[in-house]
From TrEMBL:
Coiled coil: none annotated. It holds the Pfam family Glyoxalase. InterPro entries: Glyas_Bleomycin-R_OHBP_Dase, Glyas_Fos-R_dOase_dom, Glyoxalase_1_CS, GlyoxalaseI/FosfomycinResist, VOC_core. GO terms for molecular function: dioxygenase activity; lactoylglutathione lyase activity; metal ion binding. This is Catechol 2,3-dioxygenase.
Amino acid sequence: MRIDRFDHIVLTVADVDASVRFYTSVLGMREHTFDHGRKALEFGSSKINLHQLGHEVEPHARRPTPGSADLCLIVDQPVDEVVAELERRGVAIEIGPVDRTGAQGPLVSVYIRDPDQNLVELSNYRT
């Protein structure tokens, strides 16, 4: 077997609406409603499905818990522009910009937290 890529991930969240607002307004993802009202966040060729804590869709993680994820997202614009945009929006930067290593090489990254305190790394590959 050879895995090609991720299609989607699932985040268990305390408040679906708060998560949708954060990921759409701060990170520019698109809200998608499917399957009788379920919510997802779309970006590029991927998506994040949202499960409301206590109402997870079967099957699900053994211990679905808000705030347990650590995501790395590659952004189109330079990280210094991302930092400026986050500052304009009043989003606290936890760490960064810092050098990191991604799946395809060296990154420059900043870290923020979503409403559930998941760690969200916003990165560019160094050229």
